[in-house]
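Sorry, any thoughts here?
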Amino acid sequence: MNPDRFFSPDPATRNVARELYDSIAVSPLVCPHGHVAPRLFSDPNATFGSPADLLIIPDHYVTRMLYSQGIPLESLGVPPSSPSPLPERERGAEGGVRVESDHRKIWHTFCENFHLFRGTPSGTWLAHELSEVFGIDEKPSAASADRLYDAIAEKLAAPEFAPRALFERFNIEVLCTTDAATDTLDHHQVIRQSGWGGRVLPTFRPDAVVNLDAPGWRANLDRLSQVSGVDVTDYGSYLRALEQRRAFFRLMGATATDHATLMPDTVTLSPVEADAILQRALRGQTSAADAARFTAHMLMEMARMSLEDGLVMQLHPGSLRNHNENVFRRFGLDKGCDIPVQTEYTHSLLPLLNRYGNDSRLTLVLFTLDESTYSRELATLAGHYPALKLGPPWWFHDSPNGIARYFDQVMETAGLYNTTGFNDDTRAFCSIPARHDVWRRVSANWVAGLVTRHLIDMDDAREMMAELAVDLARHTYHL
């Protein structure tokens, strides 16, 4: 991989960017938000499985691109969650869905189509993983597939490629997972009791019990009653159960919550109004309007709770989940079918910010998939309200161009110190160093541009690079 990748072709800017990047290149990785499974670290003998297990089957960035070219998810080893009917030619010997179980064949399909990832962030991350993690600089192709599979499989079987060993090799200072409000955090408890030095912390995510239209909401609510010890029968007991779970997460080291909504609407309901909606939900009579108003109200309640218990509140709106109904019915959640929608923040967040936005004890980190809001709304909001910070480019915009656009549209108005540094937001553990490296290189290039245009000096630039690489994330998330 070219050591000057992502730096400007202009020699003056490139030289400064290289110097700035070198100043933070070996800094530890602070990972305040992501979706890596904690079970990987609770078992000292855990492995990543085969190369297909690690790099293809669970990674919807990868499977999404291949599916877009007509490659069935089954051929990539993705199992259906429900046995929906298929044409006879696509059925297995027992009449069920034929899912490819030969991981070498799955790997061949991936390598034969690796050209699809040219110029994409996924292609960049995969190249970094192969080169920096596994020492492989040969491009995946039909000709190289078997050699690469055997080389990676051999390394994955070695102790130095176990999850805990790679955690230490990657120099991860802290890794935060994302866990349902009803999770008993058993894996986190095992990690804490094991004596292993890796720092893995939970994050409280209550969507499954707050969003009344979430799949399985009633079963999730029953689970909330069970794990909290609070029999949820009305709005008051519902709040007590959530507060109990937040306290438990804090006891287990959590420093943040995470909330996903289609729209960032906030509204204040009276306790009577909130209870009336909850009672309808308990009877299975919830309307779409009920669900939207209840979620908007519960964002207010979560901000109140964060003000009281100190947990950082993250809000990830703007993704229409499971857009492809056929894929959702057959394969379930998180299969690459979520699509961004247009969002609005200024009016939507007005109730929350009027009530809590002036109190610096609250930290509300906002993310967006709608880049048109960066300069029009989000930068100006974050540049005013003490409680508000802007998270880094997220999901489809976690890319060299997406990061550059973020710097161009946000920083002049919001200011660096109203942003939060980087988080990788990934399930793919071995891509974490790659994602941080892209952020650090693009950050170095942006800061170098400020230097060469004489907006800042090198002393400022070095301090800004330390903030962007590590310190902003540490400070924002109390890590």
The first strand starts at residue 29 and ends at 31. Confidence is low (pLDDT under 50) at residues 85-96.
